[in-house]
Specification:
Elements: H1 6-18, E1 23-27, E2 34-35, H2 37-51, H3 58-64, H4 76-79, H5 88-97, H6 103-106, E3 110-111, H7 115-124, E4 128-136, H8 137-150, E5 160-165, H9 172-185, E6 189-195, H10 198-207, E7 212-216, E8 232-234
Parallel strand pairs: 1-4, 1-6, 4-5, 6-7, 7-8
Antiparallel strand pairs: 2-3
Length: 240
């Protein structure tokens, strides 16, 4: 069940709209609106299918893996099971890296429970949905648009903005700084933000102190910052 303050987002949208102010809700994508578990599971399965015979015991281990075993990166399920055949981690990382950041594979992601319904209700009440993601335009843009629309998120209905990295190489901090400028350019009121990375959630809280800031307790970077204690934590978008 999501955080008890999720419903307050609707109240704040209504209040801003009543004042003729554009309400803005900022959503991260990976491990926030979408679970990347299916994408990782698919890639790991294909690696095992193609290279399973090269690493003794890999096929047997792979047959026992489930979606819930997936972590932030492709190696996590194997570290948890102490599987470390010579050369395995490096080979899997290369295989994964060529696929994870592509439109072909990004469409495998599933929405986080309650995410589609929550986003649609925010939009129905008049909010601008600002989809902010570290995915890059050239290799992931088309797949991201397809994933949003096919899964039922508002996109082609107006009051929706998708902000992707201009290229894969751009570092996260300048990208997020640029995004904050763009969000402010809409001259609306940010009423809520949703993130899975503590550092980004902290950044939003500093930038928009009057908004509600939610930290999705899904997966995040192994080098994540310490989250502010004021962040609202929950595993999904299901209303209490």
């Amino acid at each position: 069940m999501g955080h008890s303050k999720l419903a307050e987002v609707f109240t704040r949208i209504d209040a801003a709209a009543a004042e003729s102010v554009l309400p803005v809700v900022v959503f991260d994508l990976d491990s926030t609106l979408f679970s990347t578990e299916p994408r990782n599971y698919r890639i790991i399965g294909e690696f095992i299918e193609e290279h399973g015979d090269e690493y003794p015991g890999l096929r047997e281990l792979g047959a026992r893996l489930q979606l819930s075993d997936m972590g932030w990166g492709p190696i996590d399920p194997f570290v948890d099971r102490d599987f470390d055949a010579p050369g395995f981690k490096e080979a899997l990382r290369r295989f994964w890296g060529k696929r994870f950041f592509t439109s072909e594979y990004v469409v495998s992601d599933h929405p986080t429970p309650g995410a589609v319904e929550f986003a649609c209700e925010c939009h129905r009440r008049g909010a601008m949905l600002y989809y902010l993601t570290g995915r890059h335009v050239s290799d992931m843009g088309a797949g991201t648009v397809r994933a949003l629309t096919e899964r039922g998120f508002p996109f082609w209905r107006g009051r929706c903005s998708l902000h992707l990295k201009p290229n894969f190489e751009m570092a996260d901090k300048p990208f997020k700084d640029q995004a904050l400028v763009d969000i402010r350019s809409n001259q609306g009121r940010v009423v809520a933000t949703f993130e899975n990375e503590p550092g980004n959630a902290n950044l939003f809280m500093d930038a928009f102190p009057d908004a509600l800031h939610f930290l999705l307790e899904t997966t995040h970077s192994t080098e994540a910052e310490r989250p502010y204690p004021e962040l609202l934590r929950g595993p999904d978008f299901l209303l209490a």
